[in-house]
Write a structure and sequence with these properties.
Length: about 250
């Protein structure tokens, strides 16, 4: 039986996210608050150097967003394709949520703001701190700071944007951003949610999905890794699916 399908006369047993201990939730809250404050500081600092500002430099902002989207795709693809849930830290924090998410996407909507964003916010903090101390004296250094601030700021929102893409009716401003193609839309992300979940890995702006799909970037990368290491793509995910089927039958 396919994972998530209800057997006649029985309730479906869908996997859900793991319980989150209080200390982890405290860590998430601290990470979210710190990342937000440091991001505001980094953006504020950029506005204090109007002498460096020019229209061509603005292209660093979409370039940073594009880069963040590519990184989101790489991380998502890695979590979906390689490794095992039994791995320390990454198994529970990164791989398990994606395994659950494929079989029970609705569970993601039950997660609180800090649970959804805590880990990514924590990872974004060092990059945002660099933005706060980067030199801004030359057009090149200002452009680099703009790029890194843009990619880190949107990057830390990746899981939130992903959650919005699952909502039947996201907040109004979010829907505008989705409709204008500025962040990942519901329809673009639904293409990922067709088994075997191997399309549209990028979940920040979604801008990289089409070009990466066109050149079969992730399939080629997988073949290369299998060729070099002998590892089989998605073997842990298949095992997870079988374990869920076993619980339901
Ligand atoms: Zn996935
Ligand atoms: Zn999703």
């Amino acid at each position: 039986m396919e994972p998530g399908r209800q057997q006649e006369g029985t309730a479906p047993v869908l996997p859900g996210h793991l319980p989150i201990p209080v200390e982890t939730r405290l860590f998430y809250a601290t990470s979210c608050a710190t990342a937000f404050l440091v991001a505001v500081g980094a953006i504020w600092r950029l506005t204090e150097h109007p002498d460096q500002f020019s229209l061509p430099l603005l292209t660093a902002i979409p370039a940073g967003m594009l880069f963040a989207d590519f990184v989101s795709g790489l991380i998502h693809w890695f979590a979906d394709t390689w490794g095992s849930e039994s791995m320390p830290i990454l198994g529970k924090r990164l791989l398990h949520p994606f395994r659950v998410h494929h079989i029970n996407p609705g569970d993601f909507l039950q997660r609180r703001f800090i649970d959804t964003n805590g880990d990514v916010a924590f990872l974004a903090i060092p990059f945002l701190l660099i933005c706060c101390f980067m030199p801004l004296k030359t057009p090149f250094s200002y452009t680099a700071a703009l790029f890194l601030t843009s990619s880190s700021s949107i990057g830390m929102l990746t899981n939130q944007i992903h959650q919005w893409a699952h909502m039947g009716r996201a907040p109004l401003l979010v829907r505008y951003l989705q409709n204008f193609g500025i962040i990942l839309s519901h329809s673009a992300h639904q293409r990922h949610h067709n088994p075997p979940w191997i399309a549209n890995y990028c979940i920040t702006t979604g801008w990289c999905n089409r070009p990466l799909q066109a050149i079969q970037f992730f399939r080629r990368f997988e073949r290369l890794i299998t060729h070099v290491t002998g590892l089989q793509a998605r073997s842990d995910e298949h095992q997870f699916g079988r374990s869920i089927s076993g619980k339901q039958s």
